[in-house]
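name: query_chain
kind: protein
chains: 1
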Amino acid sequence: MASSTPFDMTHCPRVLAIIVTWNKKKFVLDLLKSLDALDYSSNTIDILVVDNASNDGTAEAIASGFADVHIISNERNLGGSGGFNTGLSWAFQQSNNHYKYLWLLDNDVLVHRKALSELITILDKKEDVAVAGSTMIQMDFPWRINEMGGFVDRGIGKLVLNRHMEEVPGWRGRPLNELLAGDCDLTNCLMGCRPYMDTDYVAAASLLVRTDVAKEAGLWKDFFIHFDDVEWCLRIGRMGWRVVTSARSIIWHLSAVAKVPTWVLYYDNRNVLYMLKEHGADSASIKRIMRRILIKSVYYSIIAKPDLGKLHVESVQDFLTGRKGEKDISSIMQYRPNKDAENIFLDPSIQRILIPWSVNLQATGLQEPLVRAARKRTDLEVHFLISESESREQTYMLPLQKSVILPGMKPVRWYYYLRYIRQYDLLLQSDYMPLTCLSFIGREIMFVNDEGFCRRSGTTCKGIISSLFEFIGNLRLLNKYDKQQEIN
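structure:
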């Protein structure tokens, strides 16, 4: 397919870019640098940064390095929805027709030099399109698509991401800086890829909207974070406008794969229920999704994260009571930087450690402190759990490494799990891929990711039984929802 027509730099409609940030100084500064390189007239784009009361010097750094950027500093963290509403309200107060388009951007993205011009080309040519979004590529794997817009499955409450995890042919291994400066027209790279496609929503990581349509649609729902941009797009679509995603407008965004499931799960669960209720999901579907959320609370108790399980229950409770906005979440276990992990490995109460294949010691930075601890402690036993199929290709990470082979046959595996209950003082679990069946093996569990770790008490049979009884009691929330529907 032919490349897009070169953008007419003599025709640059006035645009306001709105960025919301909170304590991500480095990321937002990198974003502003990438905006400086846009193939777009700097005289016709204004940049507004809404700072949600950052305490890392974000506002000062922007004022020092980017004098033309307008900054609004909120007195407290209003989340993504409150931050964008601050920016949208400011934009709506400007004189009529001052900005033809509003460009909403996440603070942790980098934009290709043609990202804006390709979105404007669509809105200028297609009068029935109100929103155009960029294709989002993973920043940590800059050749892998995260999403090309998406759809909402109202039956199960899930977002269906277009071309999710698809690799762009010829991009693997190329540095991000090279891709930012090169030609990134995906219609020339992907099979069957058109210049743009209709979608239910585009993420506000890079969302261009007609200002008059944004005014008519109104401000975002008070969700604090997550699903606020999806709901807004659905609202605009319900007004009769098209929402599309461009294959020629490219941004790079921190991958959700690299983000650890934590307190944001509360907002995911609560807000998806609000969104579905607002946009046509039937009562049976909402009730089914509520039940799934409650079941998930038991799962988190099983893997030794009962605080996250409690948040799942609270998300359903708050949906039923109509609570929105920010929630005071202070009961979540805090993570410590991985550089502090050596103290855990030197703890004399930790004699035996089990590390399954799902934990990448080098990516997390834990290999070095673990090696130091193993050399200081002759009494420390570290076992690596590997599957039978991988036993011949195991990677050695420690001096005098000992390996435990997990049998391939499921009945034998279950015998192994039962045999080794509480046989290890510390079990390492990956936050990205926790292995549920191992939850009972460690007296304590150390959840690890690429940034930090969290030390928790291991799962107990008593705790699981308690969570099951709580789950049965929480099923009454479904009856409460039925009664609300009867009243309505």
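note: The longest strand covers residues 242-253.
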